Amino acid sequence: MATSEFVPQPARYAVFVDAGYLYAASGxxxxxxxxxxxxxxxxxxxxxxxxxxxxxxxxxxxxxVYWYDAAPKKQPTVDQRVIANLPLVKLRLGNLNAQxxxxxxxxxxxxxxxxxxxxxxxxDAVLLAGDEDMLPAVEAAQRYGVRVHLWGVExxxxxxxAEWLVWESDTVEVLPADFLRPYFTKAKALPVPATPPxxxxxxxxxxxxxxxxxxxxxxxxxxxxxxxxxxxxxSNPAVRQxxxxxxxxxxxxxxxxxxxxxxxxxxxxxxxxxxxxEHVAQKWIFERGRDNIRDLLPGPILxxxxxxELLIEAxxxxxxxxxxxxxxxxxxxxxxxxxxxxxFGIGIGKSS
Length: 352
What we know:
This protein is an alpha/beta fold. The chain has helices spanning 19-31, 43-57, 78-84, 105-118, 135-143, 163-168, 177-180, 199-203, 215-220, 270-288, 290-294, 304-318, 326-343, and strands spanning 12-18, 39-41, 61-71, 89-96, 102-103, 124-128, 147-153, 171-175, 184-186, 255-257, 266-268. 39% of the residues lie in helices and 16% in strands.
């Protein structure tokens, strides 16, 4: 006679974060801000702090973190792209409408939580949220035997979580201001210097003036070299790019030595890389929106995830790898920032 044995479910939990609630409540509590543009969040460190806290509170292992947020037309922002690349973190995006309202986030959360509970993938769920729209997700998970632990942000006054959501959860915890404070900082005002009338001449090193440093040179503390005047007629033609050399040969004007890549190794032409950098910036401004690109300011360092995307886009344009060519990658970034700064009226020139 066949018998069935009960196999105990291993303890495992997932963390579900409504980023809209977390950011809004924390911004109001810590900085008195109502808009995300008024503050910056160290999201990677914040997520690490949340998972460490969950590890201290719950038995078993972490399955993953589900991060629910919204963006216009579901086009992820810079910060959201960084979060999406973190290990054991699943980014879920809803749509952010013109009124700043999140659409579709609660439905995604309910689907994820209910699916994990139904398939016995978790025994516990941490829910960091405050909206009553999350109540159906809690009830669905509990019907499958999952314990739901509701976390909230310390309110500025009264309560910032729906009463029914608090009642239905198995345990409730409020994260204090001191827990969240290290990860939220006030956004700095961006300097917008006026672009001089002769900016083009300055960028080209004309008029005897030193060229304006590029963003990468400013960061590295290097001063760009002033362009040398064109060689007079009759001088050695081999030293001038684009001039015919002895025997009718033509000096290559589309390749340049790449520093740090080995003697005699040639990389892409500088002007070509600047052009590609500007093209990618223009494409992103159009596809991702000005507000998204503004989040990269003040520069000149790109988040590693975004820098990698820039490199991949450029390699598609070139049809080859840029990884051996450090100087070409610098030119690419210079071109990118040149277009971004021009878009927002910040006058910084290209490298010479």
